[in-house]
Amino acid sequence: MKQGVPRWVTNDEPTLRAYDALVNKVxxxxxxxxxxxxxxxxxxxxxxxxKIKAVVGVExxxxxxxxxxxxxxxxxxx
Length: 78
What we know:
- The chain has 78 residues and is of the alpha+beta class.
- It has a domain at 27-75.
- The chain contains two helices and four strands, in the order H-E-H-E-E-E.
- The chain has a two-stranded parallel sheet with strand order 1-2. A two-stranded antiparallel sheet has the order 3-4.
- The model is unreliable at 74-78 (pLDDT under 50).
């Protein structure tokens, strides 16, 4: 049986606002994330391609795929 961790989707917007503020304060940068944090990192990488140079995902919950010249999140099935 795989381990599962609940995801509270009602926290997405406040979390992204906090990450927006951080990116604008400290970037350019490379973001390292784990598990469910990858979804936020990929969103930010698309939003700030000039500020986020790379995303390093450790056991990410998804992956970026290129679609019509832009990247989007694709869920992994590992």
